[in-house]
Specification:
Rossmann fold; alpha/beta; 40% helix; 25 strands; 939 residues
Length: 939
């Protein structure tokens, strides 16, 4: 841009000829990076006249305007650099010097000393060589302007400048940050790296602290290796610097005012971090290795999946640490951590993220290989899921899960390139330089707190043993492991350095080793900063040991409901609604007045209102949660004139609880995992994840299998998350019919979760309230309706809401003579209304229909009551819309058999077994639906 303008001006100015090339090259450097030119030149280029007041990205200005502008600068003496031009060759070299600086900022990391094993074979980067820019040996003794390089003053000898650039950008730290578009962020990083040449000047106390961390990291591994040879521990050896890194992050965060840190990490180094950072007693870990365990009600889990909590003392105050429980899936814990952090921030009223910080620790192959990482990065700055940035550490041991080399596990130069999608700065660091590691750790905390964005540390290290301690790595990495066997440990390298520089005496180093080993022998906590937990902000005690059938009172005076209904149906006159939405709200006004029965959307919203009025939180996320996928909720109202929003649920009473209804990112796994993490950190209130279609839960199956269904059994973690999964056969094809009810029922055991299929507005109202009012906290899986949202028979009265409760089983509602009934049909969900309408149409009076609204835990007592009048019946049928191999038939029929009278038979009415959840042809669907209804009613 403007090149033609500049050329025209130069040809007519005293800067013509060789000097014009100088200015044009200066402008090219400015275009690539405005910070690469001096302040006076940048001021000139920043103020190039736009066209008719447009931005600089607009079409070029007329040549005469720019020419006149430069002439006026020269005449007024304001352009000092131009006025000083005397040597065209020297001035041209000045541009090259600025380009050399810029090259190091952009590509210095490619020439950095990052690999402790020195096995990386990297092509030399030509841009980093002064000769590439036409700079000669003679130039090395010349003084040049350093532009915005923040070290050594405005001018430096080129030799000194090159040395400073190499130290800053090509040492033990490789900084990738020039992909960031925000100039303030780039300048901030430059101001932190360049003045100190990318190094920290630590005193003896900090250096000793770093060595203590390395000593502990190595010491626990050697101790476990000797005490439990051959046992899996997923050793940290080679990446020992993770321990001092974590400790420095905690110290820095505590100084900045952070009160809680939530950590997520997979297996590698987890036991080390548990003992040496969080303060787990080694004796407890040794008992786990020996096969001992505390008596619990659950199955437990392997030691390298366990979580832990403690308080850690820092000069800025104690910091509460929580290491999240982690299943075998290598990265799925990351959004869980983010959800837990968001819940803690919300509880503290922390809007900027400072008080609660997440740290996620990744493997080099996993961070690129697992899609959940991309999903979590994508969430990081969105409205409903931001947490003020996270610190992401990659323990980069340069080997994949077992045998993979980097060219087998990714298609990019670095495993951290995925982070560039959110313009996160990436600091690669050689793990054998622990002071550089500490420097980067502190820098990462400061960046995160300053800009509220993710930051990545790539801890380049190695893995001293195989994938686990029984593995033989040299079978597939012979050269690497030949080098590793000869390579000194990080502790020895650093200890030798400190001894050589007379910071610590050799005897003191030996004493530290012995002291740590003695502490392990005693089995007590080895973290001197460990403190008993006092920083918990939530008490789970009221929810422990509770069961799903425990009595509770959720009734409300009808007058209170009436007032809430009035509040919910009110919309300010200035808030213009879309016509269909306006009709929904006019209907709600009529419902509030008692002129119309309540539909699904209004009853559901009333449930939220009662919870909020009780000062509890409601959080709903999903891809269409504001309006509801099927246009029924409309809790968030969009003004048709100015696109502002109004939430009636935020305007029901003074001092009400907060509500967040968020249209989520287009992801299921990460969002459900986030909400699981939120619900495990916040027992009060109501947290809901809503699938756009029920089958979308397929993409979140890992979360369902490894957290929701089994988290309590494995780890004792309670969670009251509610999942709304649209389910019902409407002729919309395989993927838009079934929420895979059978999968949830297959996972049900030990009263681990609830699976409900509500069929009326009153039922959804009571079900949602029950999830909060009742003190039990377990996941609730709801097969929620589609066509029932507006079905004329699926309505309820205000009295049913005020004075009723959730019915796990709903018996026959028509007046049938019980003695004449010779068949009882069990069913759940939408098919009930089709059975009911067909029975009424055909005047059938010998078949009773019973709805099972809670399929698990199965309500045996309520079923006995519903069947009390039908003990003479011998013919029972389970009717479902799903194919025979899906739905509730195979998973729940043992409950049906237990409920029916002795000697009675139980048969199936539904679709035939199918590999697909439903057919895709409307005519075939209608035929199948009619057939299954007729079969159930003996037609």
């Amino acid at each position: 841009m403007h090149q033609g303008i500049m050329k025209a001006w130069l040809e007519s100015s005293h800067l013509s000829g060789a000097n014009s090339t100088y200015v044009e090259e200066m402008y090219e450097a400015y275009q690539e990076d405005p910070q690469s030119v001096s302040d006076d030149w940048r001021a000139v280029f920043d103020n190039l006249p736009p066209v008719n007041g447009a931005s600089k990205d607009a079409p070029e200005a007329a040549h005469s305007k720019v020419r006149d502008y430069f002439r006026s600068l020269a005449m007024e003496g304001r352009h000092k650099s131009a006025a000083r031009v005397t040597d065209p060759e020297l001035d041209a070299k000045q541009v090259k010097v600025l380009q050399l600086i810029n090259a190091h900022r952009f590509r210095g990391h490619q020439g950095a000393n990052l690999d402790p094993l020195e096995l990386w074979k990297r092509e030399p980067v030509a841009d980093l060589d002064p000769a590439f820019h036409g700079l000669t040996k003679e130039d090395m003794e010349r003084e040049f302007n350093t532009g915005s390089f923040a070290h050594g003053g405005e001018t430096m000898k080129l030799a000194d400048l090159v040395k400073a650039l190499k130290a800053t950008y090509c040492g033990s730290i490789g900084a990738e940050y020039m992909h960031i578009t925000d100039t303030d962020e780039k300048r901030w990083i430059q101001q932190r790296l360049e003045p100190s040449l990318g190094k920290a000047n630590y005193d003896k106390s900090v250096k000793t602290r770093i060595l203590e961390g390395l000593n502990a990291a190595e010491g626990i591994e050697k101790y476990l290796g000797a005490k439990f040879p051959g046992a899996k521990r997923f050793s940290l050896e080679g990446g020992d610097a993770l321990v001092p890194m974590m400790r420095e992050i905690i110290y820095r965060a505590g100084e900045a005012g952070t009160k809680e840190i939530v950590v997520g990490m997979a297996h590698r180094g987890r036991l080390n971090v548990l003992v040496n950072v969080l303060g787990k007693r080694p004796a407890e870990l040794f008992d786990e290795f020996a096969g001992k365990h505390a008596d619990t009600h659950g199955s437990g889990d392997v030691k390298y999946h366990q979580g832990f909590s403690s308080d850690f003392e820092t000069p800025g105050g104690n910091v509460h640490l929580a290491l999240a429980f982690n299943p075998s899936h290598l990265e799925i814990v990351n959004p869980v951590v983010m959800g837990s952090v968001r819940a803690r921030q919300d509880r503290r009223g922390c809007k900027d993220g400072l008080q609660v910080m997440p740290i996620t620790i990744h493997g080099d192959s996993a961070i690129t290989g697992q899609g959940i990482v991309q999903e979590t990065f994508n969430m990081s700055q969105t409205r409903g899921f931001k947490v003020g940035g996270s610190i992401r550490i990659v323990v980069n041991n340069q080997v994949g899960f077992t045998t993979s080399n980097h060219y087998d596990v990714r298609s990019t130069e670095y495993c951290t390139d995925i982070a560039k999608m959110v313009q996160a700065p990436i600091f690669h660091v050689n793990s054998d330089d622990p002071e550089a590691v500490a420097f980067v750790a502190q820098l990462a905390v400061d960046y995160r707190n300053e800009f509220k964005r993710d930051v990545v540390i790539d801890l380049v290290c190695y893995r001293r043993h195989g994938h686990n301690e029984a593995d033989e790595p040299s079978a597939t990495q012979p050269l690497m492991y030949a080098k590793i066997k000869k390579h000194p440990t990080p502790r020895k390298i650093y200890a030798d350095k400190l001894i050589a520089e007379n910071t610590i005496a050799a005897d003191d180093v030996t004493g530290m080793i012995n002291t740590y080993r003695d502490a392990l022998d005693q089995g007590d906590c080895v973290v001197k900063e460990w403190r008993p937990m006092t920083l918990h902000t939530v008490d789970w005690t009221p929810y422990i040991g509770r069961e799903w059938d425990e009595a509770y009172d959720a009734s409300l005076p009808i007058e209170r409901l009436q007032k809430l209904a009035d509040k919910l149906s009110y919309v300010p006159e200035s808030h213009s609604l879309q016509s269909r939405v306006a009709k929904i709200y006019s209907d709600r006004v009529a419902m509030a007045k008692g002129e119309k029965p309540l539909d699904w959307g209004f009853a559901e919203t009333l449930a939220y209102a009662t919870i909020l009025e009780d000062k509890q939180r409601v959080r709903i996320t999903g891809q269409d949660s504001g309006r509801g996928t099927f246009f029924h909720r409309h809790a968030v109202l969009h003004n048709q004139n100015d696109a502002t929003t109004y939430l009636p649920l935020r305007n029901i009473s003074d001092g009400q609880g907060p509500i967040d209804i968020t249209d989520s990112v287009l992801s299921e796994a990460s969002v459900l995992a986030f909400e699981y993490g939120y619900a495990t950190a916040e027992p009060s209130g109501l947290a809901i994840w809503e699938a756009q279609f029920g089958d979308f839960a397929n993409c979140a199956q890992v979360v369902i299998d490894q957290f929701l269904s089994s988290g309590e059994q494995k780890w004792g973690r309670l969670c009251g998350l509610t999942m709304l999964l649209p389910h019902g056969y409407e002729g919309q094809g395989p993927e838009h019919s079934s929420a895979r009810l059978e999968r949830f029922l297959q996972l049900c055991a030990n009263h681990n979760m609830q699976v409900c299929v509500p069929s009326t507005p009153a039922q959804v109202y009571h079900m949602l309230r029950r999830q909060v009012v009742r003190p039990m906290r377990r996941p609730l899986v709801v097969m929620s309706p589609k066509s029932l949202l507006r079905h004329p028979l699926a309505v309820s009265s205000m009295d049913e809401l005020a004075n009723g409760s959730f019915q796990n089983v709903i018996g026959e509602i028509d007046t049938l003579e019980a003695s004449k009934v010779d068949r009882v049909v069990f069913c759940s969900g939408k098919v009930y209304f089709e059975l009911l309408e067909k029975r009424r149409k055909e005047n059938i009076n010998n078949i009773a229909i019973i709805r099972v609204e809670q399929l698990y835990p199965f309500p045996h007592e309520e079923m006995v009551a519903a069947l009390a009048d039908y003990q003479h019946v011998k013919d029972f049928v389970w009717c479902q819309e799903e194919p025979q191999n899906q739905g509730a038939w195979y998973s729940s029929q043992h409950h049906f058999w237990a409920a029916i009278p002795a000697g009675a038979k139980l048969t199936y009415a539904g679709r035939e077994a199918s590999a697909a959840p439903a057919c895709g042809y409307p005519e075939l669907h209608a035929h199948q639906q009619e057939s299954l209804v007729n079969s159930a009613l003996k037609l």
